[in-house]
Amino acid sequence: MTTLPWIICILLVLALIALHFLHQRRFHKTTEGLKKTFQEQLSASEAAIGRINRELTTQFQNLLEGIPDGLLVLDKDQRLEFVNTPAINLLRLPSNPIGLRLLEGVRWPELMTLIENLTPDQRANTMELPSPSSSQGWFKVFAALINPEGPFPKKYIVAIRDITETRLTEQHQREFVANISHELRTPVSHIKGWAETLLGNLGNIPRETEQRFLESILRNAIRLELIINDLLVLSALESSTIPIKRECVDLQALLHQVTDEFQKRATEKGITITCSLPRVCIWGDPLRIEQVLFNLIDNAIKYGRPNGHIQIGASVKDAIAEVFVADDGPGIPPEALERIFEKFYRVDVSRSRATGGTGLGLAIVKQIIQAHGGKVWAESIPGKGTTFRFTLPAVSNSE
Ligand code: ADP
Questions:
Q1: Which of 288, 225, 303 is nearest to 258 (CA)?
Q2: CATH: 1.10.287.130, 3.20.20.370, 3.40.50.970, 1.10.510.10. Which one for 164-242?
Q3: Closest C-alpha to 363, from 282, 285, 296
Q4: How far is the CA of 358 from the centre of ligand 1 (A)?
Q5: 109, 209, 254, 349: which has the highest count of C-beta atoms within 10 A?
Q6: By three-state DSSP, how is residue 71 classified?
Q7: Which numbered atom of ligand 1 lies nearest the CA of 349?
Q8: Is 96 helix (H, G, I), strand (E, B) or coil?
């Protein structure tokens, strides 16, 4: 009888132990299940983050590819980590330069100095540098040092912008201002000089001398007016403030009208003018085209040979009319053929001035022809003559 309670106790303990193990196994199973689910979710999230990361990187790189500036990201040893296509082209890098040290890929000492001079105190710098190649190019280079200290890796960012065109425009503007000042100063100083002489000698100068001085003042004032008028025309054409009309212009009729105006001057110089062009109609602004013909024939008479010959003709091909004005004068040297269309460029400055030239006639011609969608150029054999040619859209028979 005394052993029974013991047996019951032992059975109870055993039952409790069994219950404990059963519970623990169940608990273990549940936590295992939870752990597995958690791990699966974690790897799915990691994969998603990785995918989003890659997509963002690709999108960001595409964005950087789309900008015209060259962009480079370098690691602490100045090895390329990222480079966009404009930078590859600008720096003439191999097509896949990632991992390449900048020093090995680019011979541009000024760029290397700019990067090497970056310090934690001077983290960014901008410089305008001449092109590393022998061409006339100029670049604006921005370099910055990222994470110079701290937990993140140190990097360099370099942005390169081609500023060659801006520099050339600035240079042309400076030259233009210098040229205008020079062109205006000569007649102004003449007017001032003669006027001062007249005022300083009032009543003491013979009438004929006085008349000569006044004539000179008038001549120089007319010259100033010519230059200013040409400049105003050119400025209006360049800024397109005066719209170019698009009318059907009978070139033959227009040419006869212009040559009639020159007949007297041509005869005085013993020059004959021959026009042989078919009936050509072009789309354009009659007043502007008249100005083109006027300037070219004026030059042919001014620079052509005395007792020489001027020939004017035209042809039409594929709805484009090509007009030429040829003289048999001294011609233009090959190196000047392009430059004569620049403002104030003259082959022979004193001859141009002596004939009343402003140095703007051909620049005006070029602007007008370009505004009509055409081209103008000069051909010349020195000693034999010059031919100016220009194209304009022709009116086809069906129009
Ligand atoms: P300009 O007022 O000096 O004539 P243009 O712009 O009309 O200015 O011409 C520029 C230069 O081109 C002239 O100064 C001259 O040296 C040269 N030129 C133009 N036309 C001729 C030509 N038919 N023959 C020779 N040289 C020419």
A1: 288
A2: 1.10.287.130
A3: 296
A4: 9
A5: 254
A6: strand
A7: 14
A8: coil
How many angstroms is it from 302 CA to the middle of ligand 1? 8
Q: Taking the C-alpha atoms of 342, 347, 353 and 357 in order, what is their torsion angle to the nearest 10 degrees?
A: -40
pLDDT tens for the chain, residues 1 to 399: 568 888 888 999 999 998 988 888 888 888 888 899 999 999 999 999 999 989 988 888 888 888 899 999 999 999 999 999 999 988 888 888 999 998 888 888 899 999 999 998 999 999 999 988 767 789 999 999 998 887 888 999 999 999 999 999 998 889 889 989 988 999 999 999 999 999 999 889 899 999 999 999 999 999 999 999 999 999 999 888 778 889 999 999 999 999 999 999 999 999 999 998 888 899 999 999 999 999 999 999 999 999 999 999 999 999 999 999 999 999 999 999 999 999 999 998 887 878 878 899 999 999 999 999 999 999 999 999 999 999 999 997 766
Give catalytic residues, as residue numbers: 182
CB 82 within 8 A of CB 72: yes
Residue of 299, 339, 367 to test ligand 1 pocket, by largest number of atoms within 8 Å of CB: 299
> What does the domain layout of the chain look like in residue ranges?
66-162, 164-242, 244-399
Beta-carbon count within 10 A of 16 CB: 10
pTM of the shown model: 0.70
**Ligand 1 centre from 274 Cα, in Å?**
21
Which atom of ligand 1 has the smallest separation from the CA of 353?
3
Q: Which two tokens stand for residue 113?
A: 């100095």
